[in-house]
Amino acid sequence: MHHATNVVKKLHELDGASPSRHSSPGNIHYAVIPDYLNSVASVSEVPRGADPWKVYTVDLIDVGTVMKERKQGWNQQYAAAARIFNDDLSGQALRATIHMQYKQMFVTSPGTKRGVLASGREFLQLMHCGVVRGKPRMFTYVIMEDRMTFTETGRAMKDVLSKHALLSNAAREVRYSGEFHVQPLGGTGGEHRLVIDNNSGTYAPEKADLPLLKELLLHNFPGLNVEVYDREDPALKAYTKEVKALQEAPASPQGIA
Fold this sequence. Notes:
With about 260 residues, this protein is of the alpha+beta class. The protein has eight helices and twelve strands. It has helices at about 5-15, 65, 80-85, 90-105, 120-125, 165, 210-220, 235-245, and strands at about 30-35, 55-60, 70-75, 115, 130, 135, 140-145, 145-150, 175, 175-185, 190-195, 225-230. Strand 5 (about 130) and strand 6 (about 135) form a beta hairpin. The radius of gyration is 17 Å and the shape is globular.
C-alpha cells in the first residue's frame, strides 16, 4: 500500500468523511458525502429544497508506484488559478476560503455512506453509472497521493472559482485532474464504460500522462472498462456534446441517484 505523506495524513484527519486507510486491490474503501451544495458556502445561494449533490472520495493505492514522480502543478497560464495561488493578499484570502469550504464539505454527517469496492463494475455502480436525477452527468475529479475525489459538474457550481481547487483543498499540485462521464454500451449485460479526460484549467494535466491515469484506474478497479482522452480530442468533444444534449432531455425514471 502506498504510504501517505504527512500532509495527506493531516488532510485525512481533517476530512471526517474520508474513507478507511486500509485498501488493497479489489478492496477499495470509499465514502460518499450526501449533500455538497448545502455544505459549501460559495454556493449557498442555491434555493431551499434544491437537489443535493454528492461528493465521492475513493481510496487509491500505489499512486506513487504507477505515476512515479509525475505530478501536475497549478496552471500559471490560467487566470482563475492565478487568482487562487498567487501569494498576494487576495490569493491568501481565496485559499483560506477554499480551506474553510473544504473543511465544511467533509464534515461527517449521519448520511455519509461508507463501503468497499471490489471491481470496476462496482466503482461505476457507486455513482449509478453516471446517472443523477434521471439524467447522465459529467463529473469533476482530482487525484491526490492516495485517493480520488469527485462530484457532479454543472451550473450549480458556477460560483465556485475553481472546482478542481476546491476538491483538492487548494493544493498547489495534484497527481491528475479533469472530468469524466459514463457511457452505456448496450446489449443485455448492462455494461458501461468510463470516459475520463484531463479537462482541468486549474492544473492542465499533461496529455502524455493519460496512459498512467488509465493504468492507475485499472490497477485499483479490476475489470474497469475505461477510455482516456485529451481535452482537445474531437471524439471527447463529441461525447461531451452528447451528454449535455441528454441533460436537456426529459429525465428517465430509472437510475435516479
